[in-house]
Amino acid sequence: MAKKSRWKAGFSPSSVFETINKRRVQTDEKVTYQGFGLTTDVEILYTYIDCSREISSYAAKNLIRSSILEKTRSGTLSPNEFITIFDKKASLNKVTTKNKYHILTSLSYSGEFSFKSVTIDGCKIVLSPSNLKKYRIT
To answer: Please, which pLDDT band fits residue 119 given cuts at 50, 70 and 90?
Structure first.
């Protein structure tokens, strides 16, 4: 059996889903969201979900958004139902998993770098002296 996503320890999703269900409007054709809270709700759920698969933050947030807007039989969305929908969408082949990439490029900078690596939005940028060349500005 495949590993199932779950809520992080100490998080009670009931109050968040109470708010989500107040904003969700489900008709026969589609599900819409009232107001401007969808992005905030996606961020809250992203913070507190332990995903069963290793996927990028961008893909996870898109899956959370589409899971919130998924039609349900009852018209409301429970935390357990959300996890089931989320896992089903995450198991599709369309989801991009996290990959490691190496980019070799040159930087023009005068002075010394005060860091050897920096992490920006989950991406680690490493300055490797073995690959660096010094260029003289003329």
So the answer is: confident
Tokens at 53, concatenated: 């698969």
List, in sequence order, the alpha helices (H) in 53-135: 57-68, 79-90
Query: Using CA atoms, how far apart are residues 75 and 107, in angstroms rounded to an integer?
Result: 54
What is the CB neighbour count within 10 angstroms for residue 41? Answer: 19
Residue 70 to residues 2, 65, 76, Cα–Cα distance (Å) = 22, 9, 10
Q: What phi and psi values does residue 62 have, to the nearest 5 degrees?
A: -65, -40
Residue closest to 48 by CA, chosen among 19, 17, 18: 17
- CB-based contact 97:55 (threshold 8 Å): yes
> Do residues 90 and 6 touch, judged by C-beta distance below 8 A?
no
pTM: 0.67
